[in-house]
Structures
1.
Amino acid sequence: MPSSRRVTLKEVARQAGVSYQTVSKLLNGQVRLLPETEARIREAVDRLGYRPLYPARSLRSRTSRTLGYSWTPATPDSPNQILDLLLQSMLSAAEASDYHLLCFAHHFDVRRELETYLTLYETRRVDGFILSSVEYDDPRILFLLEREIPFVAFGRSNPELQFPCIDVDGCEGLRMVVNHLLESGHRRIAVLAWPETSRVGNNRLEGYLQAMHSAGLEPDSLWIQRGEGQVAFGEEATRRLLNLPPERRPTAIAALNDLMAFGALRAAQQSGLHVGSDIAIAGFDDTPAARYVHPPLTSVRQPIWQIGQQLIAMLLEVLNHAYTSPPECVLLAPELIVRASTSPEASE
Amino acid sequence: MPSSRRVTLKEVARQAGVSYQTVSKLLNGQVRLLPETEARIREAVDRLGYRPLYPARSLRSRTSRTLGYSWTPATPDSPNQILDLLLQSMLSAAEASDYHLLCFAHHFDVRRELETYLTLYETRRVDGFILSSVEYDDPRILFLLEREIPFVAFGRSNPELQFPCIDVDGCEGLRMVVNHLLESGHRRIAVLAWPETSRVGNNRLEGYLQAMHSAGLEPDSLWIQRGEGQVAFGEEATRRLLNLPPERRPTAIAALNDLMAFGALRAAQQSGLHVGSDIAIAGFDDTPAARYVHPPLTSVRQPIWQIGQQLIAMLLEVLNHAYTSPPECVLLAPELIVRASTSPEASE
């Protein structure tokens, strides 16, 4: 009965009338069963066309109880705001199951990057990987899927690529920001966005468009400013927005990250505007600096601790053949943190 | 000839008339020499009373080519500003020598923390450790020294404890800040400091005192404000300083970290002062937020990339018995980054 839908271990177990742990252990050579039980399971596997998601671990003589993680280095203009919390969360989750994290350097040369993943896996230094900063056509995803090397990812890639994944609902995050601005009475709301090649950016931008359309508003084309996501771009783009004629000039700016929002703050203040009352500005990521700038910046916080915990739990399920769901992306909701940059009376 | 001073491998080599690599390889069982050469080296070892710094690695059947690193988790109020750069630097240095970094969780329970170090070493998951956030009487240092477990540290501990170590000259950093303020014409310079139990804090504060004394100035006792190093303390302490009578009121504030400086900025601006011209404020650490606050904050930058590279090079020397210097702390100079918070005409 092979079909395009993946048959799960649970279905095999139900068909054979045993627990899924029993099926998993049998297929991994971790248990010997009564001949008739084994025959029943083998038959169910054949009849349903079950295919393990990853190569049976018993082919490898031993596991390292080590998980591999590498990430794109930050730059002074674009610091990594979540690394510490994400690592600490993953470390604690891994260690609770007697696993450790092996960190390895990111290589901008893709071939070298992929070789590193392969070598670490083939030399059994790690049992599987956690990926982050996932983009469209991510070469790591394609490479690991093709070789059936176990991994989980923080972030989605192309919709047609299926793999175990956790992501934050950036679309929902922007909807929250725009709805908050609408409730404060704003109608001319601009957005500082990334280039169209950015998967994360498109996802967040979609939330802006949805919220505007739901409110019956059609954004002026000039209100969507796209650039490299740095402070300097936020500053330039905001200057352009503030130079629009009064009837087209936005009264609120939602930036897809905090860095662009910091630039927007600077440009608005240089124009003599009082941020919070004359103009509202919001960011995304709730970076540490968001609470130190003046006025403190409204932003969207991602549940990083939860993400780290779930990534490890998911990867351990994959490694233990207990990951029975079709590999879909688990979406987590972000949280809106309202501060004085959009709400002068905010306490923070 | 045993004495309190450690005899180095170099001295043994000189005495025996061979290279120190030869001595190292012989003592590690990595080479067979002519019997007379070996005898000459053994004799020099005995005569000088040479004792290897760490137990001969050949006692362990294999090495893991893995280095262990754990760090204190940050909090939202006190983010870890250097983790990404330090990790990337250590990863790249380690991988250049075919080593990897195993990260493990910090445990606030000291006994559990030390057990983790011991287990990772005894089960041969790691060959040695890198420590950071080192304090006085650091239990990790005492524990690892006692067991002769290889490690290097970013930061000094008690002066009498000798171990391979790299640190940033925080005293020099504060001297640079205070001298810059003196050159700008300030004489009443206050300092926002940590409690007296902080080794890093005392080191930085010493630089303030040295620079003031060199300029023939005796700081008013109220100019030294001590607290927990957070934004809130910086704000309160600055409010107290600004309430002093004019002749005792400081015209410049040097904070031992950027967070306290952010609080000082806020308090000064709430008093209607124009930071940079009415009052000068400087921080330390050059955190990402330093360039986003208004006005951008003068701060002291640590050479983090260089520190990561040198920590790994030092640890590999220890592991390869090529670490021949007496275990002293290598002090690296920080860099003063002047911005508008102390110098209104600064370009950044």
Note: Residues 60-168+305-334 of chain B form a domain with the Rossmann fold fold (CATH 3.40.50.2300).
2.
Amino acid sequence: MSFNTFGKFFRFTTWGESHGPAIGCVVDGCPPNIKLNIRDIQLELNKRKPGQSKFTTQRKEDDKVEILSGTFEGKTTGTPISMIIFNKDMRSRDYKNIKDKFRPGHADYTYFKKYGIRDYRGGGRQSARETASRVAAGAIAKQVLQNIIGKKYSVIGAVTQLGILGCDTEKWNDSFITKNHLFCPDKTVLKLWEKYLLGIRKAGSSCGAIIEVRARGVPVGLGAPIYSKLDMDLASAMMSINAVKGVNIGSGMNSAQLSGEQNSDEMSQAGKKTKFKSNNAGGILGGISSGQEIIVSFAVKPTSSILSQRKTINKFGKNTSISVTGRHDPCVGIRAVPIGEAMMHCVILDHYLMNKAQCGN
Amino acid sequence: MSFNTFGKFFRFTTWGESHGPAIGCVVDGCPPNIKLNIRDIQLELNKRKPGQSKFTTQRKEDDKVEILSGTFEGKTTGTPISMIIFNKDMRSRDYKNIKDKFRPGHADYTYFKKYGIRDYRGGGRQSARETASRVAAGAIAKQVLQNIIGKKYSVIGAVTQLGILGCDTEKWNDSFITKNHLFCPDKTVLKLWEKYLLGIRKAGSSCGAIIEVRARGVPVGLGAPIYSKLDMDLASAMMSINAVKGVNIGSGMNSAQLSGEQNSDEMSQAGKKTKFKSNNAGGILGGISSGQEIIVSFAVKPTSSILSQRKTINKFGKNTSISVTGRHDPCVGIRAVPIGEAMMHCVILDHYLMNKAQCGN
Amino acid sequence: MSFNTFGKFFRFTTWGESHGPAIGCVVDGCPPNIKLNIRDIQLELNKRKPGQSKFTTQRKEDDKVEILSGTFEGKTTGTPISMIIFNKDMRSRDYKNIKDKFRPGHADYTYFKKYGIRDYRGGGRQSARETASRVAAGAIAKQVLQNIIGKKYSVIGAVTQLGILGCDTEKWNDSFITKNHLFCPDKTVLKLWEKYLLGIRKAGSSCGAIIEVRARGVPVGLGAPIYSKLDMDLASAMMSINAVKGVNIGSGMNSAQLSGEQNSDEMSQAGKKTKFKSNNAGGILGGISSGQEIIVSFAVKPTSSILSQRKTINKFGKNTSISVTGRHDPCVGIRAVPIGEAMMHCVILDHYLMNKAQCGN
Amino acid sequence: MSFNTFGKFFRFTTWGESHGPAIGCVVDGCPPNIKLNIRDIQLELNKRKPGQSKFTTQRKEDDKVEILSGTFEGKTTGTPISMIIFNKDMRSRDYKNIKDKFRPGHADYTYFKKYGIRDYRGGGRQSARETASRVAAGAIAKQVLQNIIGKKYSVIGAVTQLGILGCDTEKWNDSFITKNHLFCPDKTVLKLWEKYLLGIRKAGSSCGAIIEVRARGVPVGLGAPIYSKLDMDLASAMMSINAVKGVNIGSGMNSAQLSGEQNSDEMSQAGKKTKFKSNNAGGILGGISSGQEIIVSFAVKPTSSILSQRKTINKFGKNTSISVTGRHDPCVGIRAVPIGEAMMHCVILDHYLMNKAQCGN
């Protein structure tokens, strides 16, 4: 049972509601004697936090993380690492308007039906605010992996589709991604995307997005078939992110349309190096990493809170309607990039440790 | 750690290789006092077994299941249910040709790299033969759920895309699905599909497929946020099936292209009944079932074993090539339908029991 | 893997070192809609905290608990409950004297050998300070169980042996236990015990203790054979407490000396009530609760930190010696009473929820 | 949730009832490339099987184990190892006499109350027959550990108390243990024990026993504090064995009576070797192995099925009585020796693998 815990070996447990005093997580199973740089954890959190550009929500979140345990003289000790982020922007706003209504596309209805009670302030536990905790956990996993595997290990994510607009992933450019607010990997489309998104914002509407995350330098052999396959755990990880509705590994859903000749990645050997002619498999065969780049993409549905009036019901079973007033986020998918990266780090470290136990490698 | 176990509460552990003496599974956590009909378990297995039409592999597998424990006088006792299927068609074929080669698109390479040893006969543990065990487990889950929830609970899967050919899911017809060998839900496309598939078969090629599985009568409130969300576990379940590369919940990857107005499913109340105007969410909001139909689809890549020569390497690190001779399976996706149904049953029962513990409902 | 998590359904994860900024725990799987009284949680913590009498250590710990998440308007919401206790008495004492030495009987040596690093201040993670977190978790479990089962459910622990001095458990008196600082259940021995303990304290020595914990009002049917037996989980729970070296269920180790005639508890029926003639089984048969009082006892070894000089080695592999100066705790077992009670609550609630899922009862 | 699974990394799942067609287990997480000697597995099973001397039950069980999966060319492959033991001696005896009665001291009552149904034939799932499966799992763990650690690793168990008769554990003699049917370690008491046990047998009575299991060559550093401590898992393991009511680590319950001076094991260094002056800790400090001999003992209650008439009730809530007729087992504790050894192997391997993942050692 792991209601609020992710991972088997490198595990993190998150807690907290968007409008409680704090949120946080406990990381368990982190290897000892790893130098932790808290500034680098904070940098990952900064990538996720809202209010940074005109393209995402203007809600200010400080997202300052503190470590409460598990380190000694700057190094991990093998004991649980507790991190806390105090909630700052939880002004005592008036929730009278929405406290009894179920916002369509949100989990208001299902939480209420399941638990019979819910903290409606800002979505409570359903809020994407929870993802800050996992970004912190992922930042630790990243440092551990870079310590173990070295700098050849890296993970980078990007938005590869913004609403109805795609991009050319052949033009993927790492450094360009880090320099634009939309995590767009393709220089040639950015301007168009920006214009499109501002239009959506102005209209009070929203759009979805597809995020692609790539991991490089992952050793061959990670993944425990049959029911802890690396792709299972990655699919599970990405699907756990708020508003995600689909996950692809490599060619993903598109592989249905390929022929056998097109799909299976031919192999060849050049000296000590095994090469693959293509990477439809997304770096995973039979649930085990092949040493190729791991490629996962996932779809984030459009923000459900929009300005137009939507029909819904309230908790007394009456028909009503609802609309968002004031600031809104035209595309929640954008901020999902650092979250996807964090989940990738966590899954890979989890499997790295698992494989160590299973095969001694 | 659950290398070969699936589920948290209703759990099954599978074992066995395609060319060992037997395969099987142990189902743990099954509620007591449920009447089990072994004939119905066998019927589900029959749906999966190969050799039934000219469209799938001709390999004959008898797939006769036996129950070794966990029942008494026809009823479950709450103790583990062990099921066994003896392997019959494991003729001592000559594997000399492929024993040292890594078939592209298969897990030969990654298994060998991970474990340093592998049973190459028929794919060993990687073989899709393992899925027979989960179909048996799913058949038990189905009987339990029908016993608890009643006949309004049902799961049905279909092939909604065969290679490059789609179908109209608006024309989905349950009874038609059960009457054709391709699990095609749309009467108007079947002939075309058959012709297309026979062409692929004749050419020694293969194609992928998309499978859609629908569950009806699932109560509202199943799913344990945040890290045992119902959609996480469904994504994980489907991704565990051999050759699956992508998973969608409801509108899935396509939801990236929708606007907020199109996507979020408006709600209304009619008497005691809550209604949704649409089902882009696929019956899951915030990881919890909404009471709507649960809709999951997944892509199965084209069969990797094809007749044309493919470049690869062998375990000594030498370049070589490989091709399948004799019978082959033009679309492994077709037989994934009963497997997807089985996994759906298992996940739903798992969450049903979990919810019982968590919320007492 | 549950390095720092206890429980399967009602789970708590503890974190923190004795001399870090705080300790705490995250409780997951708590049923929703339960009224939580934070004052009652604090009362349980107060029972454990040191510095309350001349019989235990004089170290002052404030142990003030705060709830950071998981409740709304005074009720649980089904989301994780994060609790934090800030460390107050962590004066920057000089640890130079002991930082490189391995105290005999403590986990200094094994932690260092395992992790290659350790927080030596006050024992770090090994410190019994961690147990405050579980007392908090247990206090929640208690409130949940009293809410579900009612007031007939109760747990009470006592010291039944103090060093070489026993007591007559036939004279067990609940209200007397709550009124003396040694949790002694037998009025006739208290004075002797006090004198004995003061003598040990004055001599700078220490003694062990046996704690017995009794749970009443536990429903029949809790316990999941074969590998989540109620007695397994209770043994595991008690053994997890610092310095515990043995656990008995009912007659425990003593049952080896009984004859079959003496041991098995005869049954009879009086109206609707099933009666047992005796309770050698300690309320558990085949790993399942029988409805009788659950009786668990455990031995706590004598405090390892004593005033006499002890031979040991340091982390450089050199022979040396060590002794405690200043205040010491003559019997750590006494403060184990509320910890044992807390673990009992947690295990019973865990199994209560598990049984709900497994058998619907 | 692990109802019928033991272990976290090296895991085994057992299934089967005493009078079903077979029993068995699935071992998951076994490292690959380990040579498995099935004859050695059988030898361990032979130590447990009944009917071998006049001191235990005369019920004949063949206990012939077969491996159905997970090995290839004599070596483990890292995939699940399924083992099966067909039940041979399940003559269709008449159970009419006991089918509705709850035998005192047995789990008949609690199973029925929990599940509402039970297989009463020979105790069904409650039967100690299940332990054959774990002896098989333990035999695999033993071979793996001897392969990894080498021959210096060994586990040996003995009966150290038989009913009211103790022995001198200072006289513990490994080779003597293997040569007598009572697993008695002390040559000087065997004759007395035999006479005593024959007397009990003749009287139709029974007695309990204490078993002590010692593991040598266990590396320092195994055990994951705080909630997967090595002693927690050992206590849990031993408590899972049928009829066990108490578990000690090292001095165990007796440590309550020691003084701090007597109890804590002083350390010294001699060259590269760390030495302990005594072993009250039983080789475990803070839940982590210290490199000393691991010493666990546990009490087995007297056989509940005896020849004298016992009062009880039946499933209809009526008072009745019961007695065993024909052959009976005067001391079930004796056959617990190989079971305790098996559990020791399993726990140590589990923690060995865990530590590999956690600390890379």
Note: The CA atoms of residues 214 and 276 of chain B lie 16 Å apart.
3.
Amino acid sequence: MQRIEFQKALYALQQEILKMGGLVEENIARSIDALAKQDLDLADKVFEVEEAIDRLEMQVEETCLRLIATQQPVAEDLRKISAAFKIITDLERMGDYSVDIAKVAKRIGKEPLIKPLIDLPRMALLAQKMVKNALDAYVSEDQELAASVGQADDEVDSLHNQVFRELLVLMMENPRTITQATYLLFVSRSLERIADHATNISERVIYLVSGQRIDLNV
Amino acid sequence: MQRIEFQKALYALQQEILKMGGLVEENIARSIDALAKQDLDLADKVFEVEEAIDRLEMQVEETCLRLIATQQPVAEDLRKISAAFKIITDLERMGDYSVDIAKVAKRIGKEPLIKPLIDLPRMALLAQKMVKNALDAYVSEDQELAASVGQADDEVDSLHNQVFRELLVLMMENPRTITQATYLLFVSRSLERIADHATNISERVIYLVSGQRIDLNV
């Protein structure tokens, strides 16, 4: 009976994490949309959703602690909860990076973009998918899916390097682009970091399932 | 008796965290030193120490889990361990940022610096002190000390804004400085982020001591 209770509680915990992950995914997409479409209301919406993400993080944290205190799980069950505890930290950081991107959208405002944004939205799409897959891998304890997140990370890294080089060239050719270009550099970096955090989650899933500490982030 | 056992174990846990924090502090200083003095061997040392930091993180994590499993702490004791669990994540991130700074030192290599580095080392010194105070506040459960970390964060933020503006001006005046200036922008951002993570730790200490969730990072 207690076992069934615990399984139910764990299921509820995972649903909370998926909900948090859903909001984070949405906010990544929203922040890049706000930037690419220069939609400042959408940027404000990012700040709003961020508050909901932060509240969910605290809620999941309390749930973890309550579960540990009341159910006193050991071994695998305890590892699952400690994974949850770490995963929400990664999700919350991704949320912060989306806020950074939305802040850039607000700063650039309505001034003409120095280049059409193509690679940044692609990076954002990849990053979103990484978050989704990493969380699906956590819930289903799917090691292969977790490993695939590491592969997507390589793609994001190479897009980041490409964007970085392009923006440097643009700045050198036309110093008037410098301020905006540095903002876009930060956006690219934020997306690259979001992808890193998704990779962290995958590594944790692999640790949870196999006991192996691996580094997908190389 | 069990209570004394737990207190001993908690003390050992805190010592491990302080050791990890010490390495993180050192590595912040080392990375900025490597950059300012263009000492590439010192930059390599940062990568080496980072590995030790990562190992310590895992060790503390295992200690937390073992403590929870064997001592089954509740209430305040459980909160202390969960704080430890989160604090080491912040420390590990700070370690990552030091590595980022060391990578910039390697990239810039021996090419002449575009400006003498004054504010960046000042930011690094402030950030180090914030890490130290945040961890001291954790161990001694000193709410006032924790709050002071938030004040230092404002100072780091304002230095970051200043560095940002200076570097933009430099790039506009002389496009040949652009590549290095963007690297230095990232360093400034990394230091600002290290300070944010120290602030996170302080907020967690305040939560631990008072039960209040506050946002020092505004």
Note: Residues 2-210 of chain B form a domain with the Methane Monooxygenase Hydroxylase; Chain G, domain 1 fold (CATH 1.20.58.220).
4.
Amino acid sequence: MMQGKRVLSFGAGPGLWPDEVLARASELILPGPGTGLSPLEMSHRSPDYGEFHARALASLRRLLGAGQEHEVLLLPGGATMQFAMAPANLIPVDGVADYLVTGRWARLALSNARKWAQARVVASSEGEAFAEIPARETWDLDERAAYLHLTSNNTVVGTQLPLLPKGLDCPMVIDASSDVLTRELPLDGVGMLYAGAQKNLGPAGLGLVLIRRELLEIMPRSLPAMLSYREHAARGSLLNTPPTLLIVLLSLMLDWIEGEGGVPEMCRRADERAEIVYSALSSHPGVYSLPARAPWRSRTNVVFRLVDSARDGDFLAQATGRDLVGLEGHRSVGGLRASLYAPMPVDGARRLASLLDDFAAALGREGA
Amino acid sequence: MMQGKRVLSFGAGPGLWPDEVLARASELILPGPGTGLSPLEMSHRSPDYGEFHARALASLRRLLGAGQEHEVLLLPGGATMQFAMAPANLIPVDGVADYLVTGRWARLALSNARKWAQARVVASSEGEAFAEIPARETWDLDERAAYLHLTSNNTVVGTQLPLLPKGLDCPMVIDASSDVLTRELPLDGVGMLYAGAQKNLGPAGLGLVLIRRELLEIMPRSLPAMLSYREHAARGSLLNTPPTLLIVLLSLMLDWIEGEGGVPEMCRRADERAEIVYSALSSHPGVYSLPARAPWRSRTNVVFRLVDSARDGDFLAQATGRDLVGLEGHRSVGGLRASLYAPMPVDGARRLASLLDDFAAALGREGA
């Protein structure tokens, strides 16, 4: 099925797909031998589509460890839509929510919340160019807060919250777009967890929301149905015609993740990949630097710089020569970045490490 | 590529796809010989994806006849999201909008508008079970209205607005989900036109919005970026990671529509299909009845009933036996419905007409 060259993407999103899942998707998009219909043509209320829908939701529930107390929803619009919906659904009209500002996306989540209600900054590392995550002791929490919003992994500078805080007075709302399923995220204390699907879970254009059922009772303001978690939950994420094909493709990717060993295996691979890439970078301190400080370095977005940034173009060209792409840093900070999402093979990290070593060695020879 | 049986769907949405477009989609989802990437893996900011994005928007502009004064946007969430966004973006905080209530979806658009602002019913045919569209002379228009909302085609009872009204004091906002590109819709007087893509344009989970640029200046309330037409327009429908694969597939479907002859040819086929199916129904008045009254009958959703509704199951079973599916009526009204969207071949209408004739003939023999 696959022909010609195959390129490995380290882009920050959309992420890469395993060849076998793409092959299955390619086959599945054609009219099926049983139904005679493409999934693109199936009614979202038909049993044939319903099987994919239920399968994707059940996989997600298992992978996230969701219990009876949790709803799991699939919504359009990715994480950015949740920046808008979470505060609208969860902050009382005269209430307040707390936000920990650890990166560009956390800041955007905050500014979205402020369109609806009061939202406070409990701490921010913006003054340190987001190179670290503010220590818990420095957080100025508000006891009235409806929730504390956290970004579990920050893609732009490449930091990650190593552990979720415990013993808070309010539920946490967590944007886990860039590390969901690549780490164990215990759900106690979590009121809501959300993620755009396009990094670790597959198709761009879907948002995953896990929410405690009791939070669905709040509904502090009158909202159109499409913006209401309660309405989506009551209709099993079939409030309107959902992005059916994307949910079918999500179910294929989740099947693959479960088949490979689920979250424990995805965590193990994430650790191994990160270790391989960070080791290579650290072996050449004269060539590469890391803006994120050590205890907070991300396992899914390795952000690095060439000490001689004039060579960025050379590095990228050599990467492309080896069929490794998407290594440019975020446009707001420049530099380089390797995103290592759930479907990234460990061998991909090894190929990147070889490039890092060879590039450094060549620079050394030039300098000699 | 296609194997086994091929079934023709008359479902109200998602609609059917031409075999050749599905074959192209199946091929395209695999890593391309040039890029080595699947479109699922392409950055939404990459030139490779950008080509599809620009191509889809340019096709839409041509097909809709959009001019310099119009923005065309591709948004997540389908038409239901526009039920929420249109009033939020277009009705001043203390203002009002007018709604013509011609069906279930028009009523839902109205109730969504009322979440944000005042929305009036200018006329409703709900008392007539939506069997007709209220005559223009009966519309109680408000001169303060920010817009008049119209549903150009009503899928549940199968009525259609034959012509858009002229000489209004306010712009029209038109939900054209179920007849866009199957009729000529002159844009003078149209402030905004929107459609879920899954009926006439392909993939479920995308909304198309055409809006006059001057309306983007209004922005009566502070909205999160994802809910703001102005923000989406300023970012070329790339505000966040869009449903990239759906936009790629949309571009394939639009290529097909343009290749077949564009809107004039889609209109001609719509007329021919509707004529074939309505003629067959009308030939057997003792067997079939039509709830929609004659001047308002829809060319894309032919809603009909068996005079002996106890035979609905028989009819559907015979249809399935001929590989014709999706003929159930909307769950709120029962009966039968044939949706004839842009990609429906004229031959599909002929196959349905044969079934209608044969079913009626068999009933006649039973009765004889």
Note: Chain B has a mean pLDDT of 96.
